[in-house]
Input
Amino acid sequence: MDDVRLLLEAAAFAAKKHTGQKRKGKDEEPYINHPLEVADLLASVGEVTDFDVLIAGLLHDVIEDTATTEQDIAARFGPKTAGIVAEVTDDKTLPKAERKRLQVEHAPHLSHGAKLVKLADKISNITDILDRPPDDWSDRRRREYVEWGVSVVAGLRGTNTQLEERFDRLVERARSELS
Output
């Protein structure tokens, strides 16, 4: 029961941290929908039962997008969860192109838990690019995002068959719809 309590506490924590943030899509849905979807993909598609990974899925963007630190997460949710979140956090002081390059480069070297979170994150993001793209994104930009995601996921292969199969079906759909 402590794990369930901590998972729900993490959901509430993420919701508070992401208050007022919106997704880039034209619907401008609340940002919290994204980490909730990542955690749901981990549990329902990936059949992940490790609560540290599920909690990290909920918290995966809080360091990157809010004033939260790795130490804040470690104090509240434990060092394993904080470590996973830190692994998937981009350094926002770097230019966007460099952050994207580093994601591709670092993907094969992530821990198993971080690879799971990264896979679910890419599925969620590409789903949004297909179903709810930002108004100012051309089909070309959407295709480029999908292909970059393919490059990242290449370094995550062998992590979770179900998540990888979901990703592959999504990419197939994207290539068909955006060709």
